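In keeping with the milestone schedule agreed at the kick-off meeting, the structural modelling team has produced records for the first pair of proteins. Each record is given below as a sequence line and a structure-token line. The laboratory manager (R.T.) confirmed that both were archived under the project's standard naming scheme.
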Amino acid sequence: LLEEVQASTGLDGVDDKIRRLHEILVDDAPWLWVVHDLSPRAMTSNVEGFNPAQAWFQDFTPIHIGE
């Protein structure tokens, strides 16, 4: 199903295939979903001083961009 969605060139049937993929993932989960972060972060290699928070609050003040 995933390959069919990726190879599709139109929207016909894509919603149904994605819905079915979601059902499979939820009903036969290969791992336990612990959290769904609504604020994902991406970092590049020159970001320094970032330590992921162990709680819900993230302090961004010590972060800087290296050269």
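The second protein of the pair:
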Amino acid sequence: LPGGCLACDNHALQEAHLCLKRHYAAFPLPSKTSFNDSLTFLENAADVGGLAIALQ
């Protein structure tokens, strides 16, 4: 999460981060396959943002 942003609502950002983390964790993966959601968070957030724009 971005730090030092006085205009950011950190609680809301943390809630959104946890929601996105749970959402992507629910996707089934092939056996012996894993991913580090800390490394993919920005890509996941960009995917959600792109979908939100596309569906407007």
